[in-house]
Amino acid sequence: MIDRSGFVQVGRSAQGRLIAASAVMALLACVVEPAAHATPSIKVLSEVAYDGPIKYTVKMASKNWGSAQETRTIRSGQTDDFSWQSKPAGGSQNVPDACPDVDSIRNASGTTVRQVKIRFAAVVANSGDADVQLSFQGHAPRPATAVTVSGKKLQCPTDNFFSQLVHFTMPTGGAEKNVTLSDGTKLTISASRK
């Protein structure tokens, strides 16, 4: 017979209650025991050494786009975007708001700029080498030409646009990798794991 406490009553004797309590404890031990031997937790991949933060530097030397350098940090498998702006060759000039297709060569104050956009993505292999994909986009104003917009004649610069995607493998121990784009722009990239 089972009473309200959940223990089996085998009579009123203390020995009977002790035997019943022991049986319940043995049953609980069988049920609880498998939980103690559960599968160990899975280690998060981001804790693996080759998957940690990557500090990388991109240096640019270009006749068309100028010189610049940027150092940033990402993780393996991430993509990072950044841009550089500088005065164009021949200096900045004001650009009328009505000029078409000038967003990439005009800054917030309305003057022309030379702009480079970089997208950097790296995946680090078990060997420690990084498989890198780098997208390069350059925008620079060409001299203004006469354009008619809504019946008005304006002097508007046009966008001298260049784009190239490069793919390469490089070490992540700090050594430099040199890449020359098809327009002659030289990029020097280095990467090290933090």
UniProtKB/TrEMBL annotation:
Pfam family, one: DUF6013
Region (Disordered): 69-100
Signal sequence interval, chain numbering: 1-38
PROSITE patterns for the chain: PROKAR_LIPOPROTEIN
Compositional bias annotation for Polar residues: 69-95
Sorted UniProt keywords: Signal
Protein name, UniProt field: Lipoprotein
Species annotation: Caballeronia udeis
Lineage: Bacteria, Pseudomonadati, Pseudomonadota, Betaproteobacteria, Burkholderiales
